[in-house]
Amino acid sequence: MRTLGAASIVVAEAIAIVILVGRFDDIGGWSAAQVAWLVGVANAGLGFGMLVGDALEPPAFSNLIREGRIDAALTRPLSPLAWVVTSDIQVRELGRGFAGLGVVAWASVVAGADVTVLNLVITGLAVVATQVIVFSILVIGAGITMFTIEGTELVNAFTYGGATMSSYPLQIYSSAMRAVFLYVIPLALAIYVPALWVLDEQGPPGVPRELLAATPVAALAFAGFAALCWRAGLRHYESTGS
Amino acid sequence: MIAVDGLTKRYGKADDLAVDHVSFTIEAGDFVGYAGPNGAGKSTTIKMMTGILEPTSGTVIVDGLVPSKQRRELNQRTGVVFGQRTQLWWDLPLADSFELTRRMYGQDADEHVRHRDRMVALLALGPLLTAPVRTLSLGQRMRAELAVAVTPRPRVLFLDEPTIGLDVDAKAEVRRFLAELNETDGTTILLTTHDVDDLVALCRRLMIIDHGRVISDGTVDDLRSRYGTTRQLVVDLVDPGTIDVEGARVVRQEGRKVWMQFSRDEITAPHLISRVMAAHDIIDLSLEPPDLEDIIRRIYRGET
Fold it and tell me: Tell me, what CATH number does B142's domain have?
């Protein structure tokens, strides 16, 4: 049920945007189908990222700490991150992921994207990079939760909020916001820049299509930063009373 | 097997040290009790020895490894059972917890089955293997926790209050199992507990910690002879009546049975017995060893 629910949210979101764009003819010069492509990739990446990282969501992870389950993980010959991640896999996020892929396929056809191997590879790269970034945000949040114990909802602002903001073309944002999504939390590199290739568009000044080369690097660098946060959290981890 | 030197832990910016320059060594095959009031630093010490917590300063070496740096390698050779936390898979049959743990430790299947069957037999878990863990009683679950933890053949076993909340029979079963494991397999065991009977029944050595410091370290007998200066003589009289003997104080009387307390420093046991026998006709007498619980309580209070 919840899988279907999560999937229907994505479809509803895509329809809402198509209607919205229909009222204004376009958003930042992009058609409804082109914007829907962004919605699809953002949700596919979000869904698959949350599928892996659900247990790291602040309230859930905070509970793991309180229940002493992090202690238990740390007494096993395992990576505690792998242990936490595999301890709770929410199938409902799979619904969001596949619905996102469905929207991408539909949007690609309506937007008239060429079905080439290159475009398929770029689309795949976009989804995987988004997934890596979303998962990394959750890992960073978990690292912070090991300091604060109290889980912070701020993390959701970056995962869900980031995905929502990445669902619109980058040109509608101020240059400061563009810089954040390109160079701090590189969701624009993961979603918008690949879209420029697949949908055959040009980005605003300062956002050339050639940035695509930076997409995998940025996703991996972001993941590396997340790994450092996780380790800092573990070193600081203070367990709880017996 | 375990070498702890100047081990210190401060939580956050707290003024007090949870563990304050603790040093000790534990030899392979030892069975050591680690006692102390709540909040004394017992669990914190164990968490540093297992790699859960990083020490603020000082060193721990367990089986040649530094727990906080070589945690995974160390976990391969140690077992940990926390009385109030489960290491089992709550919704799965107990047998699955054995199998998942085997895979986690990468234990050879034949070896695993051999040890598992032995542990299952020792702890009478056979009929419970198909039951989901959540349906087990506390006593059954504790036995299961132990069996699962020791099946990968740890060289060191850390136990944090393994008998907490158990009834008398379940406690006895857990104790029998631990004694057997220590004797037959030579597993080094470090046990924290509030249950003095656990310590008396199992531990060759007893460390007492309070306010983050080791305040006493020795065998149970040491402790008794060092601190147990008051003992009890219990006498059954032929005729009901009271006893009045110099050097001893009557603390309790029930019909013909009289409990007397005396101090080792004032009178020796044979001397007291001869005085009692000179003045009264008695059916039976027994001399009770100093009460360890009382000794530990006095050590906590700093009265010794």
Answer: 3.40.50.300
Whether residue B261 sits in one domain with residue B199: no
Domain harbouring B244, CATH code: 3.30.70.1560
Nearest CA in chain B to A235: B54
Mutate to test the interface with B, among A69, A70, A74, A234 (most CBs of B within 10 A): A74
**Chain A CB within 8 Å of residue B71 CB:** yes
Please check whether residue B29 lies inside any domain of the structure: yes
Task: Give the structural domain span for B160.
Answer: 2-218
| Pairing assessment for the beta strands B188-192 and B156-160 based on DSSP bridges | parallel
Q: Is residue B223 part of a domain?
A: no
Nearest 10 degrees: Cα torsion B112, B117, B122, B123: 90
Contact B53 A239 (CB under 8 A): yes
Q: Tell me whether residues B82 and A242 touch, CB distance under 8 A.
A: yes
The tokens for A123 are 């689309």
Rounded-to-integer distance, Cα A212 and Cα B43, Å: 51
pLDDT in tens, chain A (242 residues): 666 777 777 777 777 767 766 677 778 888 888 998 999 999 999 999 998 888 888 888 888 888 888 888 888 888 889 888 887 677 778 888 888 999 999 899 988 888 899 999 999 999 999 999 999 999 999 998 888 777 677 888 888 888 888 888 998 888 898 999 999 999 999 999 999 999 999 888 888 999 999 999 999 999 999 999 999 998 888 876 54
Q: Is residue B224 part of a domain?
A: no
Residue A138 burial (CB < 10 Å; 0-12/13-18/19+)? buried
Q: Model pTM?
A: 0.79
| A237 contacts B52? CB cut-off 8 A | yes
Residues 274-293 of B with CB under 8 A from A: none
Interface check for A88 against chain B (CB to CB < 8 A): the answer is no
Contact status of A239 with chain B (Cβ, < 8 Å): yes
Q: Do B75 and A76 touch (CB under 8 A)?
A: yes
B160 contacts B192 by C-beta, under 8 angstroms: yes
Tokens 């000790």 sit at which residue? B24
- Name A114's Cβ contacts closer than 8 Å, sequence gap at least 6: A200
Is B12's CB within 8 Å of A235's CB?
Answer: no
